[in-house]
Amino acid sequence: MKKILIIAGEASGDIHGANLVRSIRTKTKNVKFYGLGGQKMEEAGVKLYYNLATVAVLGLFEVLKKCSFFKKIFSDTVKKLDEEKFDCVILIDYPGFNLRFAKQVKRRNIPLLYYISPQVWAWGKGRIKLIKKVVNKMVVFFKFEEEFYKKAGMDVAFVGHPLLDIVKPDLSREEAYKYFSLTSNKKTIAILPGSRQFEVKLLLPIVKKAAELIKKEYPDTQFLVAKLPSLKMDIFDEVLKDNKAGIRVVENKTYDVISVADAVIVKSGTSTLETAILQKPMVIIYKVSFLTYFITKIIIRLPYLGLVNVIAGKMVVPEFLQYDARPDLIAKEVLNLLKDPKAADEMRRSLNAVKTNLGESGANERAAAAVLDFISKN
């Protein structure tokens, strides 16, 4: 029986980790999984040492506040490397934790596969030296990442993006209108404020004001917020009290919320790709603490942040980041998408090209095959 340690630290990594585990188990029963992750991975059969999804944070200041807790998680998991004698370690994104942990794995000569690459192409190439030193194999979502790691002389496999298999609404447009009690002759705007509490607290108040501006100029609009089950409802209740735009919160129906929308206001991250796959015009927003923003501006190497723009190699979706994340600017761009069908259609064409660059369906199966091949050779 093979023993695998698998680590994912955020909601998206938890989903991808769970799907990878399930795909591996369809190919072999001769494997047991242990690690760090969230509810999805636990449901897939991973024995969790800690549920990291419940403590997910982002940004220097936010991480520092939880520093002692993360140190304990880290040291406890390092101890497991010695106690359990794993046959393989799989790390999923989450570079702040996982790249440090990778050094400990390397010291113990345990085969290490990295699934979902850290964004070294955005944060500069300094990390590639570390990755090449400690990681035995990279399994990546994007074609440009495969080329990047090949140039660095690494063993890399491009499997495509598993979102192509995941991002599918459960309801038809007609069913969604009925389910969400929407008015068919009004424009629907979806709001995706993030998967972390601090993101919702920072971004939703801005979007609420933008929605009020949109509603004032374009009364025939209706707004839905896609809420993840891991987020507490009281955050949304607090922000959306005195809700003049009539924003409604929907839980656990993200893809249906996106698919019924005429435009989407979306937090930068994986959710931009989900929106692109469903071919919906969008604007990207993001905001972090001042200290995190200041450091990021020094380090980041790209002229844009949104993954759709990174993949396209140009700005195809407008980004409103930090001080530009203003209600008036966001509202103006959303209104442009609602009032100008040509602009919305042009964005859809660009998003279709992004979707094509994500590869073909079946990424989870290809990733599982890559993992099992890696284990067999090590």
Characterize the structure shown.
The chain is an alpha/beta fold. It has 19 helices and 13 strands. The strands form 2 sheets. A 7-stranded parallel β-sheet has the order 3-2-1-4-5-6-7, with helices on both faces. Helix 1 (11-27) packs across helix 19 (363-376). The longest helix is centred in the middle third of the chain and has 21 residues, at 197-217. The protein is globular, with a radius of gyration of 21 Å. The two termini are 15 Å apart.
Question: How are the secondary structure elements laid out?
Answer:
Blueprint lengths: L1 E7 L2 H17 L3 E7 L1 H5 L3 E5 L8 H6 L1 H18 L3 E5 L2 H13 L4 E4 L4 H4 L2 H9 L2 E4 L2 H9 L4 E3 L4 H4 L6 H7 L7 E6 L4 H21 L3 E7 L5 H7 L8 E4 L2 H6 L3 E5 L2 H8 L4 E5 L3 H10 L7 H6 L6 E3 L5 H13 L1 H16 L6 H14 L2
Parallel strand pairs: 1-2, 1-4, 2-3, 4-5, 5-6, 6-7, 8-9, 8-11, 9-10, 11-12, 12-13
Helix pairs in contact: 1-19, 5-7, 11-17, 17-18
